[in-house]
Specification:
Radius of gyration: 18 Å
Shape: globular
CATH architecture of the largest domain: 3-Layer(aba) Sandwich
Order of helices and strands: EEEHEHEHHHEHEHEEHH
CATH superfamily of the largest domain: P-loop containing nucleotide triphosphate hydrolases
Largest sheet: 6 strands, mixed
Distance between the termini: 42 Å
Strand order of the largest sheet: 5-6-7-3-8-9
Number of helices: 9
Oligomer: single chain
Helix content: 25-40%
Number of strands: 9
Structural class: alpha/beta
CATH class of the largest domain: Alpha Beta
Strand content: 25-35%
């Protein structure tokens, strides 16, 4: 099975601050990889370097066998991205935003079907500013899937969603994964990571401190629950039972 994403010895600094320190991992087609860590651990910087929106100081990166720097235009057509902090124009209708996004790609997916699948089809004529936080989050996932990508990057994908909506999104992503979509995600919800991720990497102050399966993380930390294992690896306090 081919590596869709390959990262070797990635390093990125901002002045004297080492944001990412010797990160290496690979993700095979149709797999879900979780990049985990506390706020400021280096997750967003790592993803930006993988996407080519920031230049790494050191390391080799390939996505779908291509360089995110020299092959950026070709990769743009085959990759979907959803960032939590993206700010879209507020005074634009949902359908218009989807139409504009679809126009950027040579073979876009049917955004109306995606809106229906994610439960926001009834908001197609609403302005973005009129959407609730959960509705916006689902719209942003739709926008990431409009390219009909082979690989998608999802940053805190279910933040702001209620329990029912989160589970609906998980089921949709499971179907997309089964169809061959490769997913790299970040999340602070450990139940989400347990359900979705085939493999994880935990970052602590920019440096990987664990890589493997959720089950491996529990075993290596000598904890019973994955959330406790995650806290153990990141040296955050584990609550006493």
């Amino acid at each position: 099975m081919e590596d869709v994403i390959r990262v070797e010895h990635l390093k990125k600094s901002y002045g004297d601050i080492l944001a990412v320190d010797d990160l290496s991992f690979s993700v095979k087609r149709g797999r879900v990889f979780g990049l985990l860590g506390a706020n400021g651990a280096g997750k967003s910087t790592s993803i930006e370097c993988i996407l080519g929106t920031k230049n790494a100081d050191h390391g080799l990166i390939s996505v779908l066998g291509m360089s995110p720097i020299s092959n950026r235009k070709e990769l743009f057509q085959r990759v979907g991205v959803q960032f939590q902090e993206v700010h879209y124009q507020e005074n634009i209708r949902v359908g218009e935003l989807c139409e504009i996004t679809a126009s950027l790609y040579s073979k876009p997916a049917d955004y109306k079907s995606l809106l229906k699948e994610f439960g926001v089809a009834d908001k197609i004529n609403a302005f973005v500013k009129e959407l609730s936080g959960g509705q916006r989050q689902r719209l942003f996932i739709v926008l990431a899937l409009i390219p009909d990508p082979e690989v998608v990057f999802l940053d805190e994908l279910t933040t702001g969603l209620d329990a029912r909506a989160r589970r609906d999104v998980w089921q949709i992503l499971a179907r997309l994964k089964a169809a061959g979509l490769t997913i790299l995600l970040t999340s602070h919800f450990m139940d989400e990571v347990e359900i979705l991720c085939d493999e994880i990497c935990i970052l602590k102050r920019g440096k990987p401190v664990f890589q493997g399966t959720v089950e491996d993380a529990i075993k290596q930390s000598v904890q019973v629950k994955f959330e406790d294992a995650y806290l153990w690896f990141t040296d955050e306090e584990v609550a006493e039972e």
